[in-house]
Amino acid sequence: MSTTSPIILILGAGPRIGLSVAKAFAAKGYKVALASRKASEANNTANEIHIQSDLADPVTVIDAFSQVKASLGIPSVVVYNGSAVTPNPPNDPLSLQLDDFNRTFNINTISAFVAAQQAAIGFAQLPGSAAKTYIYTGNIMNTTTIPSLLDLGVGKASTAHIIESAATAYKDRGYKFYYGDQRTAAGAAVYSAIDGDAHAKLYLELAEGRTQGPWQQTFVPGTGYKDFSAA
């Protein structure tokens, strides 16, 4: 059914970034759709729906968009928070099994591409006042190589290229595409020290912005966006 409230779809709604983003946008009046492998429709409410979705299968992304449209309407903000990695020996990255490489690439890139594609189709149907924002949760690995994490680096670097291309191509239509990348104050990787609330704060600011900003949103908790490209 249609609604006058804006809608956010979060793909890969985990307990840290996903739920923090959901709470922040709900507080701003958004209706929220959360897609994850363990989602249960039993938790659905009038303002929040839960969709079972395995991002290793890109077809489930299309299904998730269809369910959101049928239940809430077209999302004006889409956050892709899926991520996967199969560690490999740092001195033998090509020993990674093809099945593992394909699965993680589906999650890190192929499903993210499908989500961006579906988001753009929806954005074209929304009024000019809508946020029309797609955000991919990335990390430092589109610019840094970690030998033991080959498939994660390939996925993040590939999707960063997609985001940069989309940000350039669609900015005149009012669509915004971003790659979120939390860093330390010195610009280093945060690894497991992920700050869900800092992601939520930044993502809300990006959605509320009227024009495309820097596509690569490197940010520091408590500071916000910080350009480390010259570092």
Short note summarizing the structure:
With 231 residues, this protein is an alpha/beta fold.
Tell me what the structure shows:
The chain has 231 residues and is of the alpha/beta class. Helices cover 36% and strands 17% of the residues. The chain has five helices and eight strands, in the order βαββαβαβαβαββ. An eight-stranded mixed sheet has the order 3-2-1-4-5-6-7-8, sandwiched between helices. β7 and β8 form a beta hairpin. α2 runs parallel beside α3 and α3 runs parallel beside α4. It starts with 6 loop residues before the first strand and ends in a 6-residue tail after the last strand. The model has no long low-confidence stretch (mean pLDDT 95).
Determine the structural class based on helices, strands and strand pairing.
Answer: alpha/beta
Could you give the distance between the termini? Answer: 49 Å
| Major β-sheet profile | 8 strands, mixed
In which range does the helix fraction lie?
25-40%
- Rounded radius of gyration (Å): 17 Å
The stretches of 5 or more residues where confidence is low (pLDDT under 50) are: none
Strand ordering within the main sheet: 3-2-1-4-5-6-7-8
Mean pLDDT: 95
- Element string (H = helix, E = strand): EHEEHEHEHEHEE
> How does the overall form come out from the CA principal axes?
globular
How many helices does DSSP assign?
5
Please state roughly what percent of the residues sit in beta strands, choosing from under 5%, 5-15%, 15-25%, 25-35%, 35-45% or over 45%.
15-25%
Number of strands: 8
